[in-house]
Write a sequence for this structure.
């Protein structure tokens, strides 16, 4: 007991001590709920504590996962070589066909560039690319995110676009000094304004609870067929125009012929994603700044 | 203090292992929620304040590193801790059957609390719809791994507590 303490102060101290767990629980619940409400209201940026945690976490997981990933790669690359010869032959055939296709596309691209220059249009694909390595994935399957080893120190900012050679990956949802979180296009919160290459119909690509996406808000959904390529439309000012998003993998119709759902297989295999590029938002690209 | 710090450190290492498994084997959809099992252990053996703080920090760490909305795991882990503390202190946790039942029930409660929190706030419905998508697998995997994780934590507890045996007798009264 403190000598100069009054009865009220003593009672208060006793009360605080007796109900310390309950008081702490209320405080922590308030902090947790406040963070959750802010995040779900569209302010996904982590607070200063979250950024410090990410900056501490990133080097640890980078250092620990690197040797293990090498061991894992060794097993998958050198020891499990079943059917490699047959697969090689198939790929060689596919490669020669793609080379021919590439030459044709290159010609068309050059023609397109000339036309755009003549018309004074800006570049469609931004040139400022920063390569980043995937260092960890989400712990829970319902949240489709990956962490990359580039942060604000490297010039990465929230809202930037993540791409792989084969297509669109997602966008930077939050970034700390050394690391950034990429929300994949397969996450249920992701939405990409896209266009179907064959019909030029606009649609929104939304994430689905797997490695798939769904196409929504199509004007004429019955016009979509399996195998249709879907590219970003460039609308919304986030994703650059013309980036491959994926291919229509399934068109589900009800027995009456009314369309139910259109599934899209992303062009990038998100489970095998190891490296990606980070590009500025569409309206921040060099071409658009001109 | 050493005991609390050691158990918390082990929980962080288990969270790191969980993240590494997901990173190295992305095709594995469900990995054991090792941090959650640690929270259940804290509920039985840690003191109220230390256990609650550890659970919150562990949940916040899981939020920051998993892509989950900030505060979701922190709040739900605290709820699990409190419920385990209310229920679990009267049981003898060395029993495998008790561990299995506790982990099964608490994993269900944890998913339920995540669902409740996500539906409570606007903007969380899309995630809430996915909470129970791999519910059964998650419970089974957690049940499968719980005895191993509990054994590790018991061992750490033993190594860092001098009067461990006397404490075990105290808890065994029921």
């Amino acid at each position: 007991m403190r000598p100069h303490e009054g009865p009220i102060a003593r009672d208060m101290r006793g009360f605080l001590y007796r109900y310390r767990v309950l008081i702490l629980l209320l405080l922590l619940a308030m902090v947790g709920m406040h963070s959750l409400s802010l995040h779900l209201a569209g302010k996904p940026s982590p607070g200063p504590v979250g950024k410090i945690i990410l900056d501490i976490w990133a080097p640890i997981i980078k250092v620990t996962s690197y040797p293990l990933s090498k061991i894992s790669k060794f097993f998958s690359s050198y020891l499990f070589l079943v059917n490699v010869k047959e697969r090689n032959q198939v790929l060689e055939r596919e490669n020669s066909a793609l080379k021919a296709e590439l030459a044709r596309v290159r010609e068309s691209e050059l023609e397109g560039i000339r036309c755009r220059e003549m018309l004074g249009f800006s570049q469609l694909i931004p040139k400022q690319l920063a390569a980043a390595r995937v260092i960890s994935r989400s712990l829970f399957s319902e949240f489709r995110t990956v962490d990359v080893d580039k942060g604000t120190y490297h010039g990465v900012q929230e809202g930037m676009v993540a791409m792989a050679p084969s297509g669109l990956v997602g966008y930077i949802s939050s970034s700390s000094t050394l690391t950034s979180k990429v929300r994949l296009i397969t996450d249920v919160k992701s939405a990409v304004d896209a266009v179907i290459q064959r019909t030029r119909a606009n649609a929104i690509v939304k994430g689905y609870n797997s490695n798939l996406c769904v196409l929504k808000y199509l004007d004429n959904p019955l016009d979509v067929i399996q195998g249709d390529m879907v590219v970003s439309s460039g609308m919304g000012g986030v994703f650059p125009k013309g980036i491959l998003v994926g291919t229509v993998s399934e068109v589900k119709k009800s027995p009456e012929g009314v369309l139910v759902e259109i599934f899209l297989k992303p062009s990038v295999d998100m489970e095998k994603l190891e490296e990606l590029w980070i590009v500025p938002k569409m309206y921040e690209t060099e071409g658009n700044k001109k | 203090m050493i005991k609390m710090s050691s158990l918390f450190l082990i929980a962080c290492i288990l969270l790191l292992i969980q993240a590494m498994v997901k990173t190295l084997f992305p095709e594995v959809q469900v990995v054991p929620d090792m941090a959650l099992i640690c929270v259940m252990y804290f509920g039985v053996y840690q003191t109220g304040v230390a256990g609650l703080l550890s659970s919150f920090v562990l949940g916040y760490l899981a939020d920051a590193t998993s892509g989950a909305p900030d505060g979701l795991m922190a709040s739900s882990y605290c709820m699990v801790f409190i419920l385990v503390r209310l229920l679990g202190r009267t049981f003898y946790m060395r029993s495998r059957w008790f561990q299995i039942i506790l982990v099964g029930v608490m994993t269900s409660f944890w998913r339920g609390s995540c669902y409740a929190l996500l539906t409570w706030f606007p903007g969380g419905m899309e995630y809430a719809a996915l909470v129970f998508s791999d519910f059964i697998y998650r419970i089974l995997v957690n049940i499968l791994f719980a005895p191993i994780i509990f054994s590790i934590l018991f061992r750490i507890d033993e190594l860092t507590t001098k009067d461990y045996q006397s404490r075990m007798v105290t808890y065994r009264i029921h």
User: Anything to note?
Assistant: The radius of gyration of chain A is 25 Å. The mean pLDDT of chain A is 79. Chain A touches chain B through 56 residues (CB under 8 Å). Chain A has five helices and twelve strands.
